[in-house]
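Model it.
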Amino acid sequence: MPSSLSKQRAEVIIRQIRDRQIVVLGDVMLDEFIWGDVSRISPEAPVPVVEIKRESTHPGGAANVMANLLALGAQACVIGVPDPQWDQNVKALIVLKSGASVSEAELIEHCRTDIASYKKPKLWAFVTALPRLASGALDRDAVDEAFGGGGYPSRGVPRS
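Modeled.
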């Protein structure tokens, strides 16, 4: 059985992740939840009938990983870009640490061996920095504009 993470070790890890720039590869999803009470089972089929109290959405898949990294102070970004066949595709924006190097071919090879085909980014961009707001937060609209994101076809309208 693995040992538990001590409070001191967790604090060290959290301090070390701040200001790191991390690439998150994978499916970007929006998890939608319906909260309510089940008062009966439908007589037509074995399906619960839910009295909806509220609905919520949360980042899922790679978006959830990215949200957790951002909460810890890392720099991470994935965007959806319009695609004529699939409506949208994932584009990985890569900001390398000073002195670090990796090629697109190396990233593709890593993905080929470690990630399911349907989850692999089809587009890659090595960038020097990601646009930020005065607060230091990622400027998502500027990221979309600068790197070809947006369109968000599943919602029927561009994000505003």
